[in-house]
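Discussion board: Methods & Data

I've been asked by a reviewer to show the raw model output for two of the constructs in my manuscript, not just the figures. I'm not sure how much to include, so I'm pasting the format here to get opinions. Each protein appears as its amino acid sequence followed by a line of C-alpha cells. Is this the kind of thing reviewers expect to see in a supplement, or should I convert it first? Here is construct A:
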Amino acid sequence: MEEISFFYELEHFKIDNEDPVKNWILIVISSHRAEHGALNFIFVSDDQLLELNRKYLSHDYYTDILTFPAGEGESVSGDIYISIDRVGENASDLNLSFLDELHRVMIHGVLHLIGFDDHGEKAQEMRQIEDHALSLRNF
C-alpha cells in the first residue's frame, strides 16, 4: 500500500498529529470507491506556490492549492502543494478556523485526483462533496 506523506517547506508550520488526518483522507478516498496510491502533501508559502503556478501553469496569481496527478494509473496519486499563507488568509476572510480551511483545501486536492472538477457549474457540486468529506472527520 502506498503512503500519504507530508512535507513541510516552512519552519513555522507542521500538522501536530498526522495519523488521524491521513486516516481521514483514506476514508474519503474509499468512500468514492477509489484506490489510493502515493499522495504527497507539500506545505509551502504563497511565494513558493506562485512560482510553481507561473512555471507549470503559466498563471501569474496566488492560489491556495496546486494538484499534480502522478501517472495515468487507477489509483489516486499525486503531489498536492498547499500555500499555508493563502489558507490562513482565506480562513480569516471566510471567518473559519485555520484547520477547517486547511482540511477543506487538502481534501479539495484529493477530490481533483479522484476526478472531480470545480469549474463553472461544477463548483457548487464540488463544495457539497467537500462538505461531506469534512463531515467524515473524526478528530
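Construct B, same format:
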Amino acid sequence: MKMDCISFYSSPLGRITLASDGESLTGLWFEGQKHYGSTLRGVYEEKNLPVFRQTADWLDIYFGGAEPDFTPPLKLSGTEFQLRVWETLKTIPYGRTVTYGELAKTLAKQKGVLRVSAQAAGGAVGRNPVSIIVPCHRVIGADGSLKGYAGGIEKKEFLLNLEKNNKAV
C-alpha cells in the first residue's frame, strides 16, 4: 500500500494542509476545518513532491489575485454522487457563484432525472476534499447568503471577495 504524503502552505487565511498519494493532490484543507484530513489513510509523511510545488504555485497565483491557468493533477475519492458534484463545482467560473438549488438542477439535468435534492448536493459540497481548487466556496444560498463552508464562513467571504475584486473584465 502506498503511503500518503502531506505538505503545508501558508496562505493569507492561515496554514493549509496538502495531501497526496505521491502523484496527485488528494486533499487541501484549512487547519481545523470540518472533515480535515478526510482522505488521509492513517499513516502519512511530510514530503516535498512535484504535485505540492505545483499546488503551491497555483495557490500563489490565486492568492495573488489572478485566476490560475492550470490545475495540479487531482485524484478525488468519494461516492459516485460526490464525484459528480465535485466535477460540476469545477465548472463554476472564477468570480461567479451558483446557488445550491441551481447546482441541484444542473446535477438533475446531467443525470436525466427530474430532481436532485439541493440538500444532498450541499452535503456533497461540504465534503469536498480539495478546497479552493475545487471551488465549493462558489456555492451560496438561494437568498445570496454565504451558507455552510467547511473552512468557515469568514474564509468563504474572503475567497469570494478575492475573486470578485480581481475578476478580469
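Answer (T.O., handling editor elsewhere):
This is acceptable in a supplement if you add a one-line summary per construct. For B, something like: The chain has a mean pLDDT of 91.
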